[in-house]
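Suppose a colleague, Dr. K., hands you the sequence of a protein chain of 248 amino acids and asks what its three-dimensional shape might be. Before reaching for any lab equipment, you can write down a predicted structure in token form. Begin with the sequence itself:
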Amino acid sequence: MYSKPFYITRPVWNNVFSYEDRDNKQLYVPSLKKIQDFSEIQLLWKSQDKITFEEYDFDGKMQSCYGLENLYEMRWRDKPLYLVDNHNHVFYFWYLMREKWIISDDNLLYHMDEHADTRDPWEYLMKPDSQDLQKVFDYTNFFLNVGNYIIPAEKEWLIWETVQIRSQDALEKYTSWEYKKIEKGDRKIILNLDLDFFEPELDFIDYELKKKVILNIAKKSDIITVCTSPYFIDQDRALEVFRDIFDK
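The predicted structure, expressed as tokens, is then:
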């Protein structure tokens, strides 16, 4: 899966947003590339035929957004790290990691994001279907969107508990070790970071505190998924932050 780029042409997935009002009726999904070095990460050229997300902004202006040239698979301190543009792609990679026995069921998810991403899609993969990566891929790319991929993972018991870290208070609560009580036994940990947590309107939240908490969780995580969110943050800024945190 993700071996070749493709387009979403029907009003499904992220393509459903303002579909009837948009001149462009398709969204581009890049292929997955395995890399060894952070210098290999590239952004898409702003080409009309490779829009990865499109929606009206709060001022009523249509925003045509371009993300990553590829989805990227890499290693960080010898653990899997996936970098994607639209956040629902991580759903597939969580299940891929379960297929490879990197994680199992009942994982602890640390979700660091400007948004909760916990809208309910009202239709879920059942356990037998979740064992089939083709069905997981289809569900990820033709049903889920950037705001509703966590609940299905909870319903299917891939995620045992989700800890939302989306504010200064939540960061400080984490550093006071109030979450330590839920990190016990052999439970695996997933760090799920959206780089829109660093968009300019959230600059009132201390940058170094964000970075400190992210690295603390990353070091004890079993897998790391990171999203660049082209609609919510400038992509050059997103990659600048990503490299500052992880390219060490």
